[in-house]
Amino acid sequence: EYMGTLHFCKRMLRGLARSATALRRYATDALEYRYSADHGWVSIKKGESVARVGITSVGAELVGPVHYVDLPDPEGQIEQNEAAVTLECSISANHLMASPISGQIIALNRKLIETPSLVNSDPFHEGHLMTLRLTDPAQLESLMTAAEYAHFCKTGESKALSTAH
């Protein structure tokens, strides 16, 4: 049990370091990032209603190498905390990725069909999951800022994604 916990902590720290690097890389693009407790992220330009959604590098590290991504209906409506995407991983069970925010799906990242590993290698850009038109922008306030998310991960409050059955 100790070795399992130690392995989990090491994976979390590697993912957190990758998140910090990615955040610095994309901090110059005038986007605001918000985070959910199950390692989802939302990026949106201030004052706009269209946002990208994805999984953080911490979340991608927790699920392991992604080999297949099952995306939602391309014209569907998604609600906050609703299971939106299934990530198939080789070293663990399939994982459900809940949407951190409600919105109308306006685009899916079809690159993930051919190259699902983008979720692991570039989760904040090429590996994003979908683009939504927000139906309730006020929900952004229920999500964590970058500083809050970093603290959340460092304090061990973080949890793994839901397992698909």
- What is the string of helix and strand elements? HEEEHEEEEEHHEHE
**Low-confidence residue ranges:** none
Terminal Cα separation, in Å? 24 Å
Major sheet characteristics: 6 strands, antiparallel
Helix amount: 25-40%
Looking at the structure, what is the overall shape? globular
Rg, nearest Å:
15 Å
User: Helix- and strand-based class?
Assistant: alpha+beta
Strand content: 25-35%
Number of strands: 10
Order of neighbouring strands in the sheet with most strands: 1-2-3-9-8-5
What number is the mean pLDDT?
84
Number of helices: 5
Describe the structure.
With 165 residues, the protein is α+β, with helices and mostly antiparallel strands. The chain is 30% helix and 29% strand. It has helices spanning 2-26, 57-63, 111-114, 118-121, 146-154, and strands spanning 31-35, 40-45, 50-55, 66-70, 77-78, 83-89, 95-98, 103-108, 130-134, 162-163. The strands form two sheets. Strands 1-2-3-9-8-5 form a six-stranded antiparallel beta sheet. A four-stranded antiparallel beta sheet has the order 4-6-7-10. Strand 6 and strand 7 form a beta hairpin. The longest helix has 25 residues, at 2-26. It starts with a helix and ends with a strand. The mean pLDDT is 84.
